Amino acid sequence: MTHDDRVDVALEVDPWEGDSRLPDLFGASWPAIAAFHTLLVDEGVRRGLVGPREVPRLWERHLLNSAVVVPFLPETGRIIDLGSGAGLPGIVVAAMRPDAEVVLLDPMERRTDWLLEVVGALGLANVVVMRARAEDVHRELSGVAVTARAVAPLDRLYRWALPLLVKGGVLVALKGARAHEEVESAARVGAKLGGGPAEIASVRAVDGAEETTVVRVVREVVRGVR
Asked: Which H or E run contains 169?
């Protein structure tokens, strides 16, 4: 990115900045979410976890986008954010689900270092940061829900996520325009791993925000459990 490009990006204003609906949406979690936004704009960009061109779109494309998963998640129990990256949606989920234990799972040290700093700065006592690949912790980690955002196509995501779920646990994945196609092509893999039929929902965090596609799959069968 050239100097002129950086200036152009810096001059762009996020249209959601200062919108009075944001504190209403996030409720008691608003102070943590607002502080997380500031961290993403400053340190997140500097560390390469957020692209500079994403700054004017952080609220809609990242934070509001992450918030839409929360109504699909249980209020208690362990929620695993798979491939947490910069903390989206995991940090948002942790702030909005304070009675749940949220595990932020990522294999990259620079990301887990960042996540630990964010958790400390925001005072999120319900978060565990774990540096590992999902397939390496299948036997030691399980939860009532798994979230994932822009991690992998569904057939691969099922292989990583479904073994992390207890019977009756739910995978809630944020997907793009090809969600229906992915669901169809991954159906056999999902069923083999005990996943039930995938449900697809198009939702908005608030009126006027972009629609987000959510795929929800319940793990109905776990080997050895009936």
From this structure: strand 165-175
CA distance to 55, 66, 90, per residue, from 17 (Å): 11, 16, 21
Taking the alpha carbons at both ends of the chain, their separation in whole angstroms is: 55
How many helices and strands (H and E) does the chain possess? 9, 7
Model pTM?
0.92
The full length of the chain comes to: 226
- Contact call for residues 76 and 100 (beta carbons, < 8 A): yes
- Looking at residue 177, what is its pLDDT? 84
Q: Are strands 212-218 and 199-203 parallel, antiparallel or unpaired?
A: antiparallel
Reading the block at residue 97, the tokens are 């689900």
Most distant CA atoms of the chain, gap in Å: 61
